[in-house]
Design goal:
Layout lengths: L1 E3 L13 E4 L7 H16 L4 E7 L2 H5 L11 H10 L4 E6 L2 H4 L3 H12 L4 E5 L12 H11 L2 E5 L3 E2 L2 E2 L2 H9 L3 H8 L3 E6 L6 H4 L5 E4 L9 E9 L6 E10 L10 E6 L10 E11 L7 H19 L3
Parallel strand pairs: 1-4, 2-3, 2-5, 3-4, 5-6
Antiparallel strand pairs: 7-8, 9-14, 10-13, 11-12, 11-14, 12-13
Helix pairs in contact: 5-6, 7-8
Length: about 300
Amino acid sequence: MRIIRDTVFVDSADRGAVAAIGNFDGVHLGHQSVIDLARQVAKDASAPLGIMTFEPHPRSYFSNNPTPFRLMNAEAKANRLEKLGVEKLYELPFNASLAALSPRDFAQTIIADQLGLKGVIVGADFRFGHGRAGTVTDLAEFGTQMGFGTTIAPLLRNDLGNVSSTAIRAALSDGRPRDAAVMLGHWHRIEGDVIRGDQRGRDLGYPTANMSIADLHPPKFGVYAVKVNVLTGPHQGSYDGAASIGVRPMFGENQPNCETFLFDFKGDLYGSTLSVALVDYLRPEQKFDGLDALIQQMDADCDQARAILANV
């Protein structure tokens, strides 16, 4: 998959794609249905399959609320889109110039002139242009005038209601990772590099891989049964484990992070990139009377996680 991070880097081979447009945060089943439709349109047009998305997320650009909301970072999103067969990822910088474009100017300048797309696919609730003034009806009219096709994908519903990033965030906040997975079509994953922590886990007999969740929507704090993929480094592979997400109340005030203990693993993961899939929520964070009580609970957590993961 080729990633184009600015329209100034578009060459002739990047033009003429059929692209789904959106933020695709989480790449959930609703997003996947849009991508599947784009794949069929691209095949019919003998064109590459593309995705147009934006960094930073427009919500981050406009909001004064510092609370993290993203389900995945840009790298994790790109990894997921590549697995879905996307050939061209147009990851456009969302800045003042882009935000100021009227709906017509966005269609003419970005879609038609700079990217030369053959067709675009969007969800039925898609809005675009300055002030989100443009509708799917406007986009279809612009496409007729400017020479690109427009396909509208219906919104997806399941037994839990509308499939949306908002609904997935709510499920994760409630400690319902399996409900989130039903809407995502895959386990919710936290991806990032392993950073150095206080190494308390090593002293307790539970060495953990520490990852920041600073820019991500925080799941309900507590302990989870997890599936782990080590994506880079000498220990690449798949492992089961248990992860604690939160502020570690046993040891004072801390920045929220994800600490993962990999079962039956020995090795150094510092600097490696991990993808930690949340399977089940086991319990909330606790402050124990002493280290012996903490270790006893960690033993029980790992036994419970092993039993759960044996059936996943």
